[in-house]
Amino acid sequence: MLKERLQILVTAEQRQRLEAEARRRGSSVATVVREAIDASLGGPTRDERRAAVEAIKAMRGQYLSPEEIEAVIDEEREQILHADA
Questions:
Q1: Which of 48, 66, 76, 77 could cross-link 44 (Cys pair, CB 3.0–4.6 Å)?
Q2: How many domains does the chain have?
Q3: pLDDT at residue 85, as a whole number
Q4: Is 19 inside a domain boundary?
Q5: Residue 45 or 1, more confident
């Protein structure tokens, strides 16, 4: 999850190169910059990324889907309405 904001100044040529690369990849300039930082300074290892994916997969089933949440809310609402009657 992205939490830190960073503002940098670049030359017109650098911006043009960033925008061209973003268009080529079909991504945002911000994504190109983040990936360049990781490529240059190191980022999460492949094993760390795989572990993160596995952790996310392990969460499946632990939480209700939006549809299930709506059903629970509707059920609670009905119980409250019938209790008042």
A1: 48
A2: 1
A3: 63
A4: yes
A5: 45
Compute the distance between CA of residue 16 and CA of residue 5 in angstroms, rounded to an integer: 21
| Residue listed under structure tokens 């300039």 | 29
Range of the domain at 69: 12-84
Q: Report the 10 Å Cβ neighbour count for 76.
A: 10
Select from 62, 61, 44, 64 the least CA-distant residue to 52. Answer: 44
C-alpha closest to that of 14 among 26, 39, 32, 27: 32
**Residue 4 is assigned to a structural domain of this protein:** no
pLDDT digits (tens, 9 = 90+) for 52-76: 889 888 887 777 888 989 999 999 9
Residue 6 within any structural domain of the chain? no
HSE, side-chain direction, 13 A CA sphere, residue 14 = 7
Whether 43 maps to a domain, the answer reads yes
